[in-house]
Design a protein that fits this description.
Elements: E1 2-4, E2 17-21, H1 29-44, E3 48-55, H2 58-62, H3 73-82, E4 87-92, H4 95-98, H5 102-114, E5 116-122, H6 135-145, E6 148-152, E7 156-157, E8 160-161, H7 164-172, H8 176-183, E9 187-192, H9 199-204, E10 209-212, E11 223-231, E12 234-243, E13 254-259, E14 270-281, H10 288-308, H11 310-319
Parallel strand pairs: 1-4, 2-3, 2-5, 3-4, 5-6
Antiparallel strand pairs: 7-8, 9-14, 10-13, 11-12, 11-14, 12-13
Helix pairs in contact: 7-8
């Protein structure tokens, strides 16, 4: 997949461009349906499958409080690539872009620059100044300007509407199994391993790999999780604690992962952590002995869960090293 990070990089319209446009935060199953539709239509007309998205997410610019993102732009790019598209156009979002009228965006970006022949959008998509570029507008523009418009209807898994908003809600509630159902994969956090207080191994007996988390991030429910850690292309089981270490009177939000059967020095290395199941809420203990005893129980419970789900977890890890 070719990645274009500025419209100026496009020197001529793509051949028979079949296009979808959206924010695609989390690249959940609903987004994947859009991508699949675009790829199939491009194949049938021997055209080019194109996804258009924005970075940063428009609501990070338009809302003072921002938005809790399910995935970073890098994660989103990796997941879209896995969908088999030919081109990903990432438009740098700004107040200037936000002020472009919907009809001008269609003319200047979708038609003149990208060369859209078929447009595929989700049932609730809207863009342009004042979100005037809604479904009815796009259908009218398509009729007037010669491109087909396909609307992919809402997708449900059971009684849950597949949407980025719902995924955020599930992650914040620690409902990782439900989040996985809507995403089609485990919810993942990632980053470089930070140097922490180093008490995990020396004092508590359970060394941890620490990832810094910002309160602006989408923070899963604070507590302990069964997890899967991907480091240097290999998968390991583990337990993850997301919280502020109340036993030690700290107030710094951190994700601490004890990785099973692992003794490598990985400070400064990138790791990915898949959250499989919420075990318990974070709590304050009387001291190190009580904390260590509880962690031992967490580890034993996590290992039991990992054994019972070994086949599913192994397949998931093998398929998603590069995500």
């Amino acid at each position: 997949m070719k990645i274009i990070r500025d419209l100026s990089e496009i020197t001529e319209p793509f051949s028979n461009a079949c296009v979808t446009i959206g924010n695609f935060d989390g690249v959940h199953l609903g987004h994947q349906l859009l991508f699949g539709e675009v790829v199939q239509r491009a194949y049938r007309c021997q055209g080019t499958s194109v996804a258009v998205t924005f970075d940063p997410h428009p609501l990070q610019i338009l809302r003072p409080e921002g938005i809790k993102l399910i995935s970073t732009c890098d994660q989103k790019t990796e997941l879209i690539e896995h969908a088999g598209l030919d081109i990903l156009v990432i438009i740098p979002f700004s107040m200037k872009i936000a002020g472009i009228r919907a009809d001008h965006f269609v003319d200047d970006v979708l038609l003149k620059t990208i060369g859209v022949k078929e447009l595929v959008v989700g049932y609730d998509y809207a863009f342009g100044k004042g979100r005037a570029g809604n479904i009815d507008f796009l259908k009218m523009q398509g009729k007037e300007k010669g491109f087909a418009v396909t609307v992919v209807e809402a997708h449900f898994e059971g009684d849950m509407l597949v949407s980025s908003t719902k995924v955020r809600e599930l992650v914040a509630d620690g409902r990782m199994a439900d989040a996985r159902t809507l995403l089609g994969r485990y919810y993942q956090i990632r980053g470089e391993v930070q140097l922490g207080q180093q008490r995990g191994g020396k004092e508590i007996g359970f060394p941890t790999a620490n990832l810094h988390m910002d309160k602006e991030d989408l923070i899963p429910k604070m507590g302990v999780y069964v997890c899967q850690v991907i480091c240097d292309g290999k998968c390991y089981g583990g337990v993850l604690n997301i919280g502020v270490n109340p036993t030690f009177g700290e107030n710094r939000l951190v994700a601490e992962t004890h990785i099973f059967d692992f003794d490598q020095d990985i400070y400064g290395k990138p790791i990915k952590v898949n959250l499989l199941r919420f075990l318990r809420s974070e709590q304050k203990f009387s001291g190190i002995a009580e904390l260590s005893a509880q962690i031992a129980k967490d580890v034993a419970q996590a290992k039991e869960i990992l054994i019972t789900q070994q086949q599913e977890i192994t397949l998931s890890c093998e398929e998603r090293f590069n995500r």
